[in-house]
Amino acid sequence: MKVFFSASVRGNHQSAARIYTLISELGFKHTSDSWGTDDPAYFNNWTREERIQHVEELFPKILKADIVVLEVTLPSFTIGQFIQYALDHKIPVLALYKKDSQKAFLEGQESQANRLLVSEYNDRDLKKVIRDGISYLKELNETRFTLIFPQKIVRHLNGVAKKGVSRSEYIRSLIVKEMDSENC
Hints:
By secondary structure, this protein is α/β, with parallel strands linked by helices. It is about 50% helix and about 15% strand.
């Protein structure tokens, strides 16, 4: 599963870097490597044009993600744009905020957007909050789809099923392999 992660560069860089690392440790693939490499001091020295270009380069990376994870403890206009962009494209968003901080930035928005999950975390439960949040949102992302196949394909799929792989999983794996080869 592919995850886009971002946080305000004005926020707590150590928390953001830890979230980025935990997402990888949980087995998810990042669509953007900016938090693995961004140094806030370096970013703050960018020109206005460089910042705009950097943000614009991130939007296509959101579209490649199955889920967007954002650290929202510090309110940020850019993070708000990322949330809206993802939701507009039907990509679920896990918005994380640090315990004992105000969540006014997103207060009441969960009821307006059923693909938005706002979760509080602390240093001890962060990994569990990320895992549980992504798991919950992943379920929202799955859609039932019916296909009609010729008998020859059905016989092949039945043979695959007898080997212990479900027909649905086999078809999904073929599609995912094709998407990966096209860098979708």
